[in-house]
Structures are given as C-alpha cells and as structure tokens.
Amino acid sequence: MQKRNSRAWFHRFGSSSYFYRIASRWGPRTGWGALVLMVTGIFMGLFVAPPDYQMGDSYRIIYIHVPTAWMSLSVYVLMALAAAIGLIWKMKVSFHVSRACAPIGAAFTFCALITGSLWGKPTWGTYWIWDARLTSELVLLFLYMGYMALDKAIPDRNTASQATAVLSLVGLVNIPIIHYSVEWWNTLHQGSTVIRMDGPSIDAQMLVPLLITTVAMNLYFVSVLFSRVRCELLNLERRTQWVREVING
Amino acid sequence: MQAQRKKRLLIVTMIMVGVSISAVLTLLSLTENINLFYSPSQVHAGEVPADASIRIGGMVVKGSVNRNPDSLEVNFDLTDTAKIVTVVYTGILPDLFREGQGIVAAGKMKNGRFHADQVLAKHDETYMAPEISESIKAAHGQQSMESGY
C-alpha cells in the first residue's frame, strides 16, 4: 500500500481535470515570466555584452540561435518520453502532451536552422553546408513534421497516438547524433561552447544573457505547451462533466 | 509494476535498443562519407580519390598567404600540423579568413596543388571580448592572433 501511495502524484497527472487545473494556473505565469526574461536577456545580449574578438557584433544572434537549438533537442526528448509513458501506462494525457510538443519543437528547430543560416553567411562564408551538425538538425525538423503528418493522417485518436509514439521513439536516436556530431565527425560547425568538460569557453558577460534567454525559451515552451494541451483536453472531453463545470464556471 | 506494463516497457526498450544498434552500425560504415573534409595528411597518404571534387580542411600556415596584386588569385598552405597542402584560389575570401585560422576548401587536386573553387572559414568554440584577446596576446607576447575584427 505504501508503494502505491508514493506514486499517487504520478497517477493524479493522468487525470484530465487535474492536469487542466495545473495547466490553467501555470500557463499564464510561465508566459509572463518568459516575456520578462526574454526582454531582459535580449537587452543584455545586445547592449551590455561585449562584441566578440573575431566576429564583432554578428555573434549576437547566438542569443536566439543557441536557446532555440537547445530547445529543439529537449522538446523532442520530452515528446518521446511522454509518448513512452503513454504507451506503457496507457495514460491519455501523456499522449496529449506528446502531440502538443510536435509543432512547438518544429518551430524551435526551424528558428535554429534559419538563425544558424543567417549567422553562417558572414562567419563561414555560406548559408548552408551539408555537414553532420546541420544535416542531422534538418533531419530533426523532418522528424517533427513526419510526426505531425502521421498524427493527422490517422483518423482514430488511439491508433494515431500509438503510431506517433513509435515514430518519436525511433527518432530519438537522432538526438545524441545531433549533439555529438561535431565530435564524432569533422564538420564546419564548431564544437560545444557551454556544455563541455573544462567549463564554458565563453566570456561570463556573454554567457549570462545566453542563460537568461535559455530560461525564457523554456518558460515560453511550458506556457505554449499548457495552452495546447488545455485546448486538446476541452475539445476531446467536451461531453464530460468536468468540462461542463469549467465552461459554466 | 503490473505484468502488462512490464511487458510494454520491455517492448519499448527493445525498440530503442534495436534502433540504436542499427544507427551505430550505419553511422560507423558511413564515417568516410559523413566527414566534411579530408586532412592534408590524408591527401599525402593517397586516401583521396583522384580527379574528384573534394573538401580539405586545416589551418592556414602563418606567413604562407600570397596574393596576386593584379587579380583575386591567392595561394596559401594548409596544414593539420603534420603535412602541408598548397591551395590555389581565385575569389573573395570570407571575413574570418586569416593566417592561423581553420578553413575548409572545396575543389580538386591538380599537379600536387589544391585548386579550390570555394573557401569557407571555420569558427572555433571560443567567444571573448576584444580587450581580453588583446591582453592574452600581450601576456604571451605572441603574434599569432591577428588583432581585432
């Protein structure tokens, strides 16, 4: 009995009405937090941080490029984890979370690719090159789009959830490939700056705004995720008692 | 955990293991194709296909850059600290191109020299303010890093 109680919180999240309540409370808060931190981080990045000794001011696109690139990976991991929980515990809310991750993750991936391309032209001399890092990140965009297409192509919700879950788990193998691509192969893209054994190789004054915009992107993600899951729950469970109570106040 | 859940967890784990093994095998067998460029040592060792368009990468040897004053032609030596390949290029070099900088050139080997039709600059993972770069240079008393932007 003791064991069962210790996991009660986990099963409570499986309840649609409980998840809806948590999401309605924290969605707006994280959204405002994201806005404040984003403005602060971008301001510091553009006006407080010093220019780079080689790239001058053009490196400042890092404050969008790196957080969106990190998010493109972590959102995918969450999407696959939620799908796995849905498969193993047959938890419907978990599938809704997974499904809501896909378009947000795709948007982050798209932003990372575009900002990287704009940064590549002045720095490397080209918008695009088929090196391991850029190619594997492009594959990630296709994985997100494939997930969304597969989801829309299957009319039955349960079948769609299971099919997309397997797809997301298979695609998970691409995540370490993206991260280690710059170490395993020789590429035009440079190696990791922040996540490395001997500590970040970036000026502290440049690093702080980067960390702030990263936290902002995470909060933004949580906020959008909660809105999407709430819409999905209201739509799918519109005939249930708890939705009627929410609508009627 | 219920027996049914345990079984589903096992299936999910098996999918992951299977996919990972096949990915590792695929990538290992494709290493040569995934690498973006050959090193000067590989060129000297004859690992580079003759008459094929390839990319080579390395550091620009200090003091090896010769510009033709009448045209955009430039030649320089590229090294991986072991071997050297001379690169010939006609065109505009990227802003970050300088001696001691890592670059990637695309083109063909001809008569022992590499004729490039594209030169790209590699950027390293270090970001610092110009003043700090200056003070590091002063401390080491070296001429290696070109000043400023």
Characterise this structure.
The complex is a heterodimer of chains A (249) and B (149). Chain A is mostly helical and 249 residues long. Chain A is built from ten helices and no strands. Helices cover 77% and strands 0% of the residues of chain A. The mean pLDDT of chain A is 93. Chain B has three helices and six strands. Chain B is flat, with a radius of gyration of 23 Å. The interface between A and B is large, with 43 and 42 residues.
CATH homologous superfamily classification of the largest domain in chain B: Nucleic acid-binding proteins
User: What is the gyration radius of chain A calculated from CA atoms?
Assistant: 20 Å
The order of strands across the largest sheet of chain B is 1-3-4-6-5
Biggest interface pair, counts? A-B, 43 and 42 residues
Order of helices and strands of chain A: HHHHHHHHHH
The percent range for strand residues of chain B is 25-35%
How large is the radius of gyration of chain B? 23 Å
Helical content band of chain A: over 70%
Most strands sheet of chain B: 5 strands, mixed, barrel
